[in-house]
Amino acid sequence: MKQHITLGVVCLARKTYDWKTAGEIWKKLRQDLSQLEQVTLVTPEDLVIEVEEAEKAAELLAEKRVDAVAIISGTFHLGHLALVIAKQVKKPILLWALPELPYDGGKIRLNSVCGANLNASNLYKGGIRNYRVVVRPDMDQDWLDAIRVRIALSTARVGIIGYRAHGFFNLSTADLALYNQLGVLVDHFELDEVFSYPVPDSEVARRKEQLQQVFDVSGITGDQLDKVAALSAKLDAFLTAKRLTALAIRCWPEFAATYGISPCAAMSLLQAEDRILACEGDVEGALSMLAHRAVGAETPFLFDFSQIDLEQNFALFWHCGVAPCNLWDGRCVRSLDTYFAGGKGVTADFVLKSGDLSILRLDSCDGKFRLLLDTARAVPMDKLLKGTYMKVVFERKVEDVLATVVNNGIAHHASVVYGTYVKPFEILAHIEGWEIVK
C-alpha cells in the first residue's frame, strides 16, 4: 500500500479570462482528486482570485499541515497568489497548468500555461526551487509518489541493532545528516535485546510450522530450526513493541557466534510479511527499501552486485540467503541451508522469480545524498548456488552498469523491487537537490 499523504490544492484565476469555465473545471477536479489513493485532500471550495483569498487559502493549508501543495493555474492570474501560498506553507509545490480550451471568438480562454510560467519564474527568482511544472488535465501521480517518499522517510522509526557489519565502512551513516536531510532519527539497540526478547512458546511453535511449510528444512538440524522459529518470533515482536518501521541488523559476526545461527532465514520469512529488514547494519539500505515501499512497490529487498558475465552480458544479484521467501521462482526447491559461518549460517536458498526490476540506492557521500536509479529484468536460471539470487539483464552493457556503481563509489547494497518505479525518484531528487546516478 502506498504511503498516505495530506495534499493541499488551490486553483488560481483572473476574471479577465474565462474564469467561470475554470470554476467548472475546478469543481470537477476536486471530485476527481477526492478519489486519489491514500490522500487526504485539503482545498478551498472556490477559485482563488484576489490576494486576500490566497492568504485565507494559505492559512487553511498551513492549519491542516499539508505535506505538499498543487497550485493549479485555472487561468492566468496575479503573480502574488502563488508567492503568498508558498511563503506561508513552505512545502514542495506542483505548478499545474491546464491544457488550453478551444478558442472562443478568437480569444485565448485560460492562458494557463503562461500562469504556470509566471509562477515558476517568480518562485525560482525568489529562491524557491522545490517545484515541478506540468501541463495536463489530471494529477501527476509521479509527483504524488515523490511526496509519499518524503513523508515515509521523515515519519519513519528506524532502528539499528548492533552496528554495521565488521569492516563495512561504506555502510556507515551520519545520524544528524540523516536527520537534517530526511527527518530520520535512528534508534540504537544492542544485539542482546533481540537475542533475549521474550516471546510466547505458542508463537515460536506457529513460526516453526510456518517455516516447515515454506521451506525444505531437511538441510538443518532440529535445534537450528527451533532457533530460526524463535528468532522470527523475537524480531517480529521486537519491531512491534519498539514501533519500528525498519530495522538494520548487524547480522555477523556476533549473531552466529552468540545466538547460534545467522538471522538470514528469519529475515527472509519476515520480509515476505512486509517487514523492512536490512542486513549488515545498512541503515541507508533500509531507507532505500522504505522509499520503494512508499510508492507502492511490494516486498523490496537488498542485493549484492555479485557477478558479471561479459560474454553473455548479465549480472548475478545475490545475497547470502535473505531475500523475501514470497519472491521464489516457483520452480526450484526453497530450502534452508548452513553453508557458511561454520555451519551456523541458516540461510534461505532459492532462485527469485523473473520479471521487470527497479533498482534504488539512497546513498550518502561527503555529507551529501544521491540516488542510484536503474531498471533491469530478471530472467530464468537454474538453482546453482546457495543463498538467494537472480540472473539479471540490463538495457545497456553490464560492464557499463558496474562502472557506474563503482566509479561513483555507491555502496554494495541496493534495494530492488518488481515493476517500474523510476520517475518518482527523479522528481524527489529535484525537490531535494540530490544528484542522480544512473
From TrEMBL:
GO terms classed as biological process: monosaccharide metabolic process
Top-level taxon of origin: Bacteria
Keywords: Carbohydrate metabolism, Isomerase
GO MF assignments: intramolecular oxidoreductase activity, interconverting aldoses and ketoses
InterPro entries xrefs: Fuc/Ara_isomerase_C, Fucose_isomerase_N/cen_sf
GO CC annotation, single: cytoplasm
Cross-referenced SUPFAM superfamilies: FucI/AraA C-terminal domain-like, FucI/AraA N-terminal and middle domains
Name of this protein: L-fucose isomerase
Record organism: Gracilinema caldarium (strain ATCC 51460 / DSM 7334 / H1)
